[in-house]
Amino acid sequence: MENEPNSHRDVRLPVHLYENAERLIAGTRFKTVEEFLAFVVRELTSADNAQFDERERKAIEERLRDLGYL
User: Fold this and answer.
1) What is the dihedral of CA 59, 35, 14, 68, to 10 degrees?
2) Distance of CA 37 to the CA centre of its chain
């Protein structure tokens, strides 16, 4: 079943976005770009998005937009 927690989909990104993400995660807890992007998508789409106040959410969205993800 495709909605199982361990099932995956491939996502294609332009090379420059992937390279930006690699630079962004250097020295962080994220070991791979895929791990980082899964975290970002999970945070932005979670039902419990109340952990971010509006100002934080806008700052995150602006940063992702600047990086070309949104």
Assistant:
1) 0
2) 3
**For range 20-40, the mean pLDDT:** 93
* Tens-digit pLDDT profile for residues 41-58: 887 777 665 666 777 778
What's the pTM value of the predicted model, to 2 decimals? Answer: 0.60
Whole-number Cα distances in Å, 57 to 53, 60, 62:
6, 5, 9
Helices H, strands E: what count in the chain?
A: 3, 0
Burial 11-50 (b: 16+ CB within 10 A, else e): eeeeeeeeebbeeebeeeebeebeebbeebeeeeeeeeee
